[in-house]
C-alpha cells in the first residue's frame, strides 16, 4: 500500500474519459504491455525535433545533415542502452515483429545442403517470436516444456536436451519476459547451453526491455528485439541489436534506395551494416523518440524500477487473488522476479465483458483475448481468452487499487450496464 507514485511522468494520465453513467474520470492505463504511454520527456524531445527533420542520408541541406546526425545518434543511444558490443549492429525497425522477421531472413542456411537454418523455440512465445521461425526457417517448436504446473528447471533441461541433438541448431529463440505472465526464463543458463552447442540466442525483449536493464555484452545474448511503443516511446520504431556477421550476409530485408552502393540494370551491389536492411526513408522521429525513452530509462536506478514495479505487481496479484472467482495465471512454479504483466480470469464472466465493463464503468483500459499467444493460452486452458493488466514506471499504486476495487465490484454486484457482443466485440 502507500501512494506508490510513478517513477517518471507519462503523457495522458490526466485525460478525462466519460463513463456510461455520465461521470468523467481520469483515464487509467493498465495496459502498458500492449502499448505504453509516452514519457513526458519523450514527448518533449519529439516536439523539439519535429521542426528539424528533413531527408536522411540523402540531402546536402543543413536540416538533412541535422536529421542524419540525429538519426545516427539515436541509433547509438539505442544500442548503448542494451549494451551493444563493438561489433554489433543496431538496426532501427518498426517493432519487435519487424525485428524478428528481419533476423529470420538472416539465419544462415546449411553451407553444404543449402537447407534452411534450424531454430529452436518454445510454444510459450508471442506469435511474433514463433511465426517468423515457423515460416522462414526450419523451426522446431518444443511443446512439452511449458506444460501447466511445470517448472523452469524442466524447461531448461528440455531445451538443453534438444539443443544437444546431433543436427545442430543455428538459433535458440526465447522470450525475455512472457507477455502473458511476465515470467522470464533462466537467461544465463540458456545462453550457456546455446553457446556450448554452437547455437546463437535471440531474445524477444518486447516485455523485458521496458522493465529491466539488459546488456548484450554482459549476458552474451546474440540478438535482442524490442519495440518503442512498449518502451514509453510513440511511433512505429523498434530495434534489432546483435551480431553483425549474419546481418551483413543476409538477404537485404527491404529492397530499395539507401540499401545499395551501386545499381546497374543487371546487378546490384548491396551495402552492409544497418543500411543493408533499412531501405527507404527512415523513421527519424521514431528513432529519436525511442532513443529519448532509452536515455530516460537508463537514468533510473534499475533497483528502483524493479522495486516500484514489483510492489505494484504484488499489490495487483494480492488484490485480485483475494477476490472470489478471480484467478491469476502462472506458468512456471519456480519463476522468479516476473515483470509487471498479470493475466487473470473472473469465473462466470467472459474476458471481453470484463474488459468492456472496466472501460465503460471505471475508465480503466486493459487487454483481453489470447494475447497473440494461442498455443500458450490453449495449453493453459484459456481458449476463450483472459484479461491482462500491466504496470510500468508510469503507473501509480492508486491505479492498481482502482482496478482491484472495480473487479471486486463486478464480482459482488455484477455489471451495472447491459453489454452485448457486436461483431465479436463486447460493447455497452
Ligand atoms: N513479443 C512480445 C513478448 C510481445 O508482448 C509483443 C507485443 N504484444 C510482441 C512480441 C510484438 O510486438 P510488436 O507488436 O511491437 O511488434
Automatic annotation (TrEMBL):
InterPro entries referenced in this protein's UniProt entry, alphabetically: Aminotrans_V_dom (IPR000192), Aminotrans_V_PyrdxlP_BS (IPR020578), PyrdxlP-dep_Trfase (IPR015424), PyrdxlP-dep_Trfase_major (IPR015421), PyrdxlP-dep_Trfase_small (IPR015422)
A single GO molecular function term of this UniProt record: transaminase activity
Pfam families, A to Z: Aminotran_5
Alphabetized UniProt keyword annotations: Aminotransferase, Pyridoxal phosphate, Transferase
Reactions that this protein is recorded to catalyse: (sulfur carrier)-H + L-cysteine = (sulfur carrier)-SH + L-alanine
Keyword Hydrolase in annotation: no
Coiled coil residues, start to end: none
Domain of life: Bacteria
Positions of the Aminotransferase class V domain: 30-403
Parts of the chain that traverse the membrane: none
Known cofactor(s): pyridoxal 5'-phosphate
Family membership noted in the UniProt record: Belongs to the class-V pyridoxal-phosphate-dependent aminotransferase family. Csd subfamily.
Annotated protein name in UniProt: Aminotransferase class V-fold PLP-dependent enzyme
Organism, as annotated: Myceligenerans indicum
Amino acid at each position: 500500500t502507500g501512494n506508490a507514485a510513478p517513477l517518471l511522468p507519462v503523457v495522458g494520465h490526466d485525460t478525462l474519459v466519460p463513463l456510461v453513467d455520465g461521470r468523467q474520470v481520469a483515464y487509467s492505463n493498465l495496459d502498458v504491455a500492449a502499448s505504453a504511454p509516452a514519457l513526458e520527456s519523450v514527448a518533449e524531445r519529439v516536439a523539439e525535433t519535429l521542426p528539424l527533420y528533413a531527408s536522411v542520408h540523402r540531402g546536402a541541406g543543413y536540416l538533412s545533415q541535422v536529421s542524419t546526425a540525429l538519426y545516427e545518434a539515436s541509433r547509438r543511444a539505442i544500442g548503448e542502452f542494451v549494451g551493444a558490443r563493438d561489433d554489433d549492429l543496431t538496426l532501427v525497425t518498426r517493432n519487435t515483429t519487424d525485428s524478428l522477421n528481419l533476423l529470420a531472413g538472416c539465419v544462415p542456411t546449411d553451407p553444404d545442403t543449402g537447407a534452411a537454418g534450424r531454430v529452436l523455440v518454445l510454444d510459450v512465445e508471442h506469435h511474433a517470436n514463433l511465426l517468423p521461425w515457423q515460416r522462414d526457417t526450419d523451426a522446431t517448436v518444443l511443446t512439452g516444456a511449458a506444460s501447466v504446473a511445470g517448472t523452469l528447471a524442466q524447461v531448461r533441461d528440455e531445451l538443453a536436451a534438444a539443443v544437444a541433438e546431433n543436427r545442430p541448431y543455428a538459433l535458440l529463440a526465447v522470450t525475455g519476459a512472457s507477455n502473458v505472465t511476465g515470467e522470464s526464463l533462466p537467461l544465463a543458463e540458456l545462453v550457456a547451453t546455446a553457446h556450448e552447442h554452437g547455437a546463437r540466442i535471440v531474445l524477444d525483449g518486447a516485455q523485458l526491455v521496458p522493465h529491466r536493464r539488459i546488456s548484450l555484452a554482459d549476458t552474451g545474448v546474440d540478438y535482442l528485439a524490442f519495440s518503442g511503443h512498449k518502451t514509453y516511446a510513440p511511433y512505429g520504431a523498434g530495434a534489432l541489436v546483435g551480431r553483425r556477421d549474419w546481418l551483413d550476409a543476409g538477404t537485404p530485408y527491404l529492397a530499395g534506395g539507401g540499401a545499395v552502393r551501386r545499381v546497374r540494370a543487371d546487378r546490384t551491389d548491396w551495402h552492409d551494416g544497418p543500411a543493408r536492411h533499412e531501405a527507404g526513408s527512415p523513421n527519424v522521429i521514431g528513432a529519436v523518440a525511442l532513443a529519448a525513452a532509452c536515455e530516460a530509462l537508463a537514468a533510473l536506478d534499475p533497483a528502483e524500477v524493479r522495486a516500484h514495479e514489483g510492489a505494484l505487481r504484488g499489490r495487483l496479484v494480492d488484490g485480485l487473488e483475494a477476490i472470489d472467482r478471480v484467478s491469476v495465471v502462472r506458468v512456471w512454479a519456480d519463476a522468479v522476479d516476473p515483470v509487471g504483466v498479470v493475466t487473470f480470469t473472473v469465473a462466470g464472466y467472459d474476458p471481453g465483458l470484463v474488459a468492456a465493463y472496466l472501460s465503460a464503468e471505471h475508465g480503466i483500459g486493459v487487454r483481453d483475448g489470447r494475447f497473440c499467444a494461442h498455443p500458450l493460452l490453449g495449453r493453459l486452458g484459456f481458449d476463450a481468452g483472459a484479461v491482462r493488466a500491466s504496470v510500468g514506471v508510469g503507473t501509480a499504486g492508486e491505479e492498481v487499487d482502482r482496478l482491484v476495487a472495480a473487479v471486486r465490484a463486478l464480482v459482488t454486484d455484477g455489471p451495472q450496464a447491459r453489454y452485448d457482443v457486436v461483431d465479436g466485440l463486447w460493447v455497452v
